[in-house]
Each structure stands twice: as C-alpha cells, then as structure tokens.
Amino acid sequence: MKYVNPKNFPLIMALLLFLVSPLSSSAESEKKKSEVNQDSEIIINADTLEIDDQKQIVIFTGNVDAREKDFIINCEKMVVYYKNNSDQPVSESGQVNIDQIIATGEVIITRPNGGLATAEKAHYYMKDEKVVLTGEPKVKQGDDFVQGSKITLFLRENRSVVEGSKKDKVRAVYSPRKKKEDSVDR
Prior knowledge:
Elements: E1 2-3, H1 9-16, E2 43-45, E3 48-52, E4 57-68, E5 71-84, H2 90-93, E6 96-110, E7 115-125, E8 130-134, E9 138-141, E10 144-147, E11 150-154, E12 159-163, E13 171-173
Antiparallel strand pairs: 1-3, 2-4, 3-4, 4-5, 5-6, 6-7, 7-8, 7-9, 8-11, 9-10, 10-13, 11-12
C-alpha cells in the first residue's frame, strides 16, 4: 500500500462521485462543519488514506467523515473498491468505475431531511444501487424507526426490506401525526 500523493487527488474525487447521485435528495442541506458547495463537492476527512492500485482499493481509516450537500457518512473505516477502465495505473489515467463501498465501525448516515441510519456495517453495491446495513441496523425518520438484523435499501426502487433473525424480530415504531385542523369558519 502507498499513501496518497497530490497526483492521486483526481482519482480520489472520481472514486467518491458515487456518493452524489444514489443517495441525493431534493431537501436543502443542513449547515455542515466543512463547507460544501452547490456543485456536489465531496469532502472526506480521515486519519489515514491509502491507495492500492494493484488491489484497486482506496481505504479511509480513523474518524472518517464524508460530506456531500445532501448527506454525511461517519464511520471508522471506509473501503472503496473500483475497476480501472484503462491499461495505465489509476493514478495516471484517473478512469475508474466504483464497484462497491464498505463502511464499518459505528456507521452513521445522516440526511438533511432528518433521516438517520446506523449500523456496524454498510455495504453499498454501485451497480444495483443497493445498501445493506448489518450489525444492529436502524433507520430512523423523526420519531419513527425500523430495526432488524439486516436492512436492505434499494435506492433505485425507493424501497427497503427489513429482516429479523431467530434471536431478534423486526421492530417498527410509527408515531401517528395529528392532522392539521381546518381553520375555515363555518
């Protein structure tokens, strides 16, 4: 493995563009610690960044904080698996396709619309636009939440599947909303 040098920065940005489209929402972004512009700039902070062109992976380790205008991902480790579209090393060609991303260690995905997902592991499959959460996964929106042993989010289809296990059943909590009363005088 080698530590990143300045010529690899375009590669890193290309690798992380996957974050823009599959998880984007139309809600306005909340104010973030790091500034993020409207062009969907991605800012990733971590204690360590390693690139292995031979294995075609990029590894962010320690206090990983990935921010885009529509979401924030915090975890202890993020591994990006990519495929090279050229005979040249990725660090020279910059041409890559993201295959999958695995975030591990106290994964927290926050959306500006109030959505929050937590798990010990989040596995994102780029081709299928699918995220699989395991390790006590929980997805929360306001006071409502769902949890199980495995939660699969099908981003393209806007649907999810929550699975239980022999030990733990699926749990869903829904808090009814009060309807706004008509203010029309009769």
